[in-house]
Design goal:
Layout (H helix, E strand, L loop, with lengths): L1 H28 L1
């Protein structure tokens, strides 16, 4: 349980980072 609590914030940051990459990729395609 403690491991998952420590990992959760990193997973959230990773998701935000991936979203940023997707947005940047879409901007480059236009």
């Amino acid at each position: 349980a403690s491991y998952q609590q420590k990992a959760e914030p990193y997973n959230n940051i990773g998701a935000l980072y991936i979203k940023k990459l997707v947005v940047l990729g879409e901007d480059q395609e236009r």
